[in-house]
């Protein structure tokens, strides 16, 4: 029997839910742990070979249905002012969500070497936090935002019109079969897209064709500290992250791309802030006891 409705309906105390989460975390750690360095290396390389045998992505429509075609108003109530649906950066720990969004966007600019006048592709642009920011700070650049969500395109186009941007184009398509013009971008920026990709090598070939000579790809991706694995059965896969992979930060580079820099950040703070905004949104419908229960988590 499926008991997800009990979790989703807010019927269980937060303390009970957290116990369940910790139990699942222990089970995951036990499932992916290795007994030796040799076993860890063999498992990792086997996973790399598995990636090479897969298509670029699967179940993209299901991922859209889960959250990329969700009404923008719902997410606007939870996310920051720039609608950054990905990790933010809190260098001091006291930043507001809006400040943390800009801190991370500025980090992308610096680490990806973005400059005014470049042709920049935001691959998997979400609600346009990156593309809109790049269009704002680089008025002489040509910014292309790519997403397979019609809802996201409508939102980004509306924001670009509101701000008077003439240097931003939004493309709706599926990265599996979409072909970008050859050698058309100085930089490709990918923020939390690769989690949905099943074959990095095929995707890298596609990106490589789209880059100009000397161009660079900047990737921001979720990563386990040691072990790559698939999200398979479970609540997360069913309701939030269908058919994604959890890479590891030291997985060997694939294809002929040279890794120049690796950065490691934590998503804890934005998740907690998003949750606090969601609590406020839900307060109109949930009983007071449920609100208090959620606040315990914070």
From TrEMBL:
Protein name (Swiss-Prot/TrEMBL): Cyclopropane-fatty-acyl-phospholipid synthase
Organism encoding this protein: Sclerotinia nivalis
Keywords: Membrane, Transmembrane, Transmembrane helix
InterPro entries documented for this protein: SAM-dependent_MTases_sf
CDD domains listed in its UniProt record: AdoMet_MTases
Pfam families hit by this protein: CMAS
SUPFAM superfamilies: S-adenosyl-L-methionine-dependent methyltransferases
Sequence intervals crossing the membrane: 259-281
């Amino acid at each position: 029997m499926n008991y997800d409705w009990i979790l989703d309906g807010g019927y269980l105390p937060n303390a009970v839910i957290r116990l369940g989460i910790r139990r699942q975390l222990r089970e995951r750690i036990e499932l992916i742990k290795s007994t030796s360095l040799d076993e860890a290396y063999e498992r990792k390389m086997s996973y790399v070979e598995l990636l090479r045998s897969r298509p670029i992505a699967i179940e993209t429509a299901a991922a859209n249905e889960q959250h990329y075609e969700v009404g923008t108003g719902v997410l606007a109530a939870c996310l920051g002012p720039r609608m950054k649906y990905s990790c933010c950066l809190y260098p001091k720990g006291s930043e507001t969500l809006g400040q943390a969004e800009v801190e991370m966007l500025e980090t992308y600019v610096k680490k990806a070497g973005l400059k005014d006048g470049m042709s920049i592709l935001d691959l998997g642009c979400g609600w346009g936090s990156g593309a809109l920011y790049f269009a704002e700070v680089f008025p002489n650049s040509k910014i292309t935002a790519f997403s397979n969500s019609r809802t996201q395109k409508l939102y980004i186009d509306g924001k670009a019109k509101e701000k008077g941007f003439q240097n931003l184009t939004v493309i709706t398509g599926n990265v599996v079969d979409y072909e970008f013009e050859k050698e058309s971008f100085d930089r490709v920026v990918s923020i939390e897209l690769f989690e949905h990709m099943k074959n990095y090598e095929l995707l890298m070939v596609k990106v490589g064709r789209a880059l100009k000579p000397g161009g660079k790809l900047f990737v921001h991706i979720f990563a386990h500290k040691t072990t790559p694995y698939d999200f398979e059965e479970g609540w997360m896969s069913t309701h939030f992250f269908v058919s994604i992979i959890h890479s590891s930060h030291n997985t060997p580079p694939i294809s002929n791309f040279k890794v120049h820099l690796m950065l490691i950040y934590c998503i804890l703070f934005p998740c907690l802030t998003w949750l606090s905004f969601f609590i406020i949104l839900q307060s109109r419908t949930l009983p007071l006891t449920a609100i208090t229960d959620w606040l315990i988590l914070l």
